[in-house]
Design goal:
The protein is an alpha/beta fold. 24% of the residues lie in helices and 32% in strands. It contains 3 helices and 6 strands. The protein starts with a helix and ends with a strand.
């Protein structure tokens, strides 16, 4: 194997480790339509792939428009022990979730359904910006 091939493999490994190291573990719930008005955009519709953030992430509207990649990592209740679909999604921050705790986010129902069985209601996740 040539030096160039080894260098490319090393770069790929470091890139993968970097993205894993930056993922934040937390939990997600979901909310249902109507998604407008939102704290960030009022009555301006930003679609269905959206998220409401806890107050720490929301940062007094500083996170409006930020995009987050979210992946389900497991269930939080015995009723649905394996809720994850294996997919990841990208959502846009449009609102504040006043009832969310630290490292908890509230996905739109459609976004949640893409990564997990909605019957679960709450799931463990990893997310990053």
């Amino acid at each position: 194997m040539g030096i160039m091939s080894k260098a490319l493999i090393l770069i790929a490994i470091v890139t993968c480790l970097t993205s894993v190291a930056h993922a934040i573990r937390g939990q997600a719930t979901f909310y249902t339509p109507a998604y407008i008005p939102s704290s960030c955009y009022g009555y301006d519709d930003h679609g269905i792939m959206i998220v409401a953030l806890n107050s720490g992430l929301f940062g007094n509207k500083g996170a409006c428009g930020r995009r987050y990649r979210v992946r389900c990592t497991g269930g939080t209740n015995a009723g649905v022990p394996h809720p994850c679909t294996g997919k990841s999604i990208v959502v846009t921050a449009v609102d504040l979730c006043p009832g969310c705790g630290d490292n908890q986010i509230d996905l739109s129902q459609e976004a949640f359904s893409m990564i997990a069985n909605p019957v679960a209601g709450r799931i463990n996740i990893e997310y990053d910006q």
